[in-house]
Amino acid sequence: MKKIEHIGIAVKDLEASNALYEKLLGVAPYKEEEVVSEGVKTSFFKSGPNKIELLESTGTDGPIAKFLEKKGEGVHHIAFEVDDIVAEITRLKKEGFVVLNETPKRGADNKLVAFVHPKGTHGVLVELCQEIAEEV
Ligand SMILES: CC[C@@H](C(=O)O)C(=O)SCCNC(=O)CCNC(=O)[C@H](O)C(C)(C)COP(=O)(O)OP(=O)(O)OC[C@H]1O[C@@H](n2cnc3c(N)ncnc32)[C@H](O)[C@@H]1OP(=O)(O)O
Ligand SMILES: [Co+2]
């Protein structure tokens, strides 16, 4: 794993949270994107070299909706950048981690993503992210 790609924060109201994080970080979100497959609306902020992803649920039974119900707003996951997500999934499975996606799926901000279950990582949901190469 190369570096932390982003930190995901579950919020109840994306618009209000955008205003709050804009005040906190002193920059506006550089992107807003809905990811239908995950049932979320997201926004992304840059803080120096780091990225914060805010996530609001678009439904009542997706992962963010369930998280908000059980734990309330707060840090939902840590995402790590990888060069080869398929190889990383294979490596982590061999190491005994519970990888939630056999095959990577399309995430936000032009990434392929896969998740590692928080029960095997001291209660922290881990996301793997690989940049999708631009087509030439
Ligand atoms: C926008 C796309 C992408 C990106 O490009 O960046 C994203 O970030 S998408 C983010 C949203 N998507 C996901 O989170 C997908 C992966 N998550 C899952 O598959 C599920 O949420 C889960 C982790 C398998 C849990 O699902 P489930 O078992 O159905 O939920 P429960 O509510 O019953 O929780 C069971 C258990 O796990 C604890 N939990 C759940 N989520 C988290 C979390 N994010 N961090 C830490 N712990 C978590 C939950 O509290 C329950 O614990 P117990 O009550 O102690 O059993
Ligand atoms: Co994420």
Helix and strand layout, with pairings?
Layout: E1 3-11, H1 14-25, E2 31-35, E3 40-47, E4 50-57, H2 63-71, E5 74-81, H3 85-94, E6 105-106, E7 111-116, E8 125-131
The structure holds ligand LP2KCY5N and cobalt (II) ion.
Task: Describe the 3D structure.
This protein is an alpha+beta fold and 136 residues long. It is built from 3 helices and 8 strands. The chain has an 8-stranded mixed beta sheet. A hairpin with a 4-residue loop joins strand 6 (105-106) and strand 7. The radius of gyration is 15 Å and the shape is globular. The chain starts with a strand and ends in a 5-residue tail after the last strand. The mean pLDDT is 96. Bound molecules: ligand LP2KCY5N and cobalt (II) ion. Ligand LP2KCY5N binds next to strand 3, strand 4, helix 2, strand 5 and strand 7.
How would you describe this structure in keywords?
binds ligand LP2KCY5N, alpha+beta, MMCE/EMCE_epimerase, binds cobalt (II) ion, 8 strands, isomerase, 136 residues, VOC_core, 39% strand
Strand order of the largest sheet: 2-3-4-1-5-8-7-6
Order of helices and strands: EHEEEHEHEEE
Ends distance: 26 Å
Radius of gyration from CA coordinates: 15 Å
Number of strands: 8
How many helical elements? 3
Bound molecules: ligand LP2KCY5N, cobalt (II) ion
Largest sheet features:
8 strands, mixed
Class derived from helix and strand content: alpha+beta
Indicate the proportion of strand residues: 35-45%
Stretches where pLDDT is under 50 for at least 5 consecutive residues are none
Helix content: 10-25%
The dominant shape is globular
Mean pLDDT: 96
Pfam family, one: Glyoxalase_4
Domain VOC: 3-131
Enzyme class: isomerase
Protein name: Methylmalonyl-CoA epimerase
